[in-house]
Amino acid sequence: MKAKHLAVLVLCFLLGACGKKNSTTPEAPIDVGEFVQSTVQLTPQAWGIVDAAIDEAVRRGTGINPDTIATSIRKLAMVASAEPTESGSAIIVKHKEGHYSTILLNLRDDDRLFLPASAIRQTVEPSPPQSSLARPTLPAEHPTGNRVLILLPFQFSLKEDPARISAPFIAAGFTVTVYANEEVTLERCRGDFLAGFHAIYFSTHGIGRGRTLGGRHSTILSTREPVTEASLASLSDDEINALAVTIIHNKAYWGISIPWLEETLSIPFPGSWFYANACESAREDNGSASFSAYLLTHGVGGFSGYDASINYLMTAEIDPLLVSWLLSGKSLADATHLVHTDLGLLAHSWLLRNVYSAQKVDAELLDSSQRLTEPYYLLATGADFPYNTCIIDFFCRATYHHSTKGENSFAFGRLVEVKGKVLNGVFNGNALYKDEFKEESKTAEIQIDLVKHQITRFKITGYSKDIISTNWSISGTSVPLPGNSTNSYFYVKGTDFGKYVGKVEYFSSWKEPDGLTVSEDLVRLNVDADSQISFQFSNR
Fold it and tell me: By residue range, what is the domain housing residue 256?
């Protein structure tokens, strides 16, 4: 655990002195078409060389030789130079048109390098804590909200279970957003998007000292967005040059870098914990290539990663243990130490090393850093919601269609009171009534951003049956509805009403005295100055 007192640098960022780079030698604009074509040609040829080298090393029972691989790749027509990284975990290729690709060698999901998980039995099970410890007293460092982002671009090959990863965060009061496989795009790896979350769990392939397209050294984390010309259409030249190409299992994907964050981050992280679950993600501790150094000077409170390539059979055991300790109330430093000294992990690594001859299985490869000298804790702040009742008041003039009389104008109004609770950031409430003459039910599903004090999604439904049978629903999803700082009252009136209210449905039917069944349904809302919707939460 490295403690880094970076308050001065953080202040520098907030004052605007640590923003984007000021290069005296700007990178040349990239010919996108030419580079993509070169990458498409390089990928199968280079990976064929890598693949054959790994097969030969396995057959001989030796390690792969990155120098030999680089020598073979240099002979390819589109290659100007090819050099192994200092760690030997990747080959940096310079294309003849001047830009760079990174070929990753030690992939933690390559079963030729690391035995499949089904072959391994642990002799001692790690023991994640079950009970919550007392919350620390401030001025300890912690996130300022409760939103978690889980990015799993190689979930299919790393065999990760999104539900298992999410569960402890949800139980601790966090709301969780998960993107897996092709959902992990460049857009979802932009700096400002990442900075919208209070914990980022990014499990991917990485390299500690790769190169961007423009040639800058940087830690690289791979996305699952394939290298195509179309994927760059909306990016600036600086953003394109800040990207990296990661060649993984005969496919080329865009990777993000420190320069990419420099170009796409305009706001500080809210004291977030950033877990880069990738090989060599924490190899670079300082300097312009260091992911941790950059993030910790731009609002991240705590960072965890790995100092070298790491066997995926170890990360599968380390990850839940680290998260469990953090969410039980341990500081980042203490949680990391507990992982390093866990008897179950020590036994597991011994088994992998001595029985199965696996490498890169040391729990101490996990490395954590923090922004300030005060202990860093992973707490779901701003997540308390003390209310169990919601009153929804809806009014709007509307046009209806009557099955026998045609269209008519009237008002559509509802005053609904439901009781419920918030779970995973969603208030679910209901109200039921039934007697011998009437049956009525109402439900409300309201997603609330407790940190930003916004309703981000809602759907209210109702059903009643007596002489008349009626079904109705009101929903909104497009624009967050603002509320007050206590998350108790959300309100909009007038012409803005239409921005927040989406689909409204109403249908009723009944029998006339002559036995004829007639119906009436909602055609459209007629929004005017009197239209309104409000959500009033209280505790009753």
Answer: 2-370
